[in-house]
Design goal:
By secondary structure, the protein is α+β, with helices and mostly antiparallel strands. The chain is built from three helices and six strands; from the N terminus they run βαβαββββα. It has one domain. A two-stranded antiparallel sheet has the order 1-3. The chain starts with a strand and ends in a 13-residue tail after the last helix.
Length: 97
């Protein structure tokens, strides 16, 4: 996740050469990605990249003004199974003595 200040298409191609995909654009379509800085052109400069095996269940962009500053918030919900390779069982807490 980064504020790249680079052309979106060029950045995606560069990261793809490293084996990384932009997971929000991959989920919703790269053409649907809005600008993420109030003074940028019509494409995002803030992105979340991950390996091809990682995908987000849901994710997207917040509206301008929801967070402090002049950037949109960007978020992704990545299932634990994809990150850790297994579903971790719930914690069990020992009873107090």
């Amino acid at each position: 996740m980064e504020d790249f200040n680079s052309e979106y298409a060029v950045l995606r191609e560069w990261m793809l050469d490293l084996g990384l995909l932009e997971i929000i654009g991959n989920k919703h379509g790269y053409e649907a990605a809005p600008k993420t800085h109030t003074r940028s052109k019509d494409s995002p400069i803030d992105c979340i990249f991950a390996s091809a095996q990682i995908s987000c269940a849901i994710g997207g962009f917040l509206a301008f003004g929801k967070l402090d500053g002049d950037h949109r918030g960007i978020w992704a919900d990545i299932p634990k199974m994809l990150l850790l390779g297994c579903n971790i069982p719930p914690h069990t807490h020992p009873s107090a003595r």
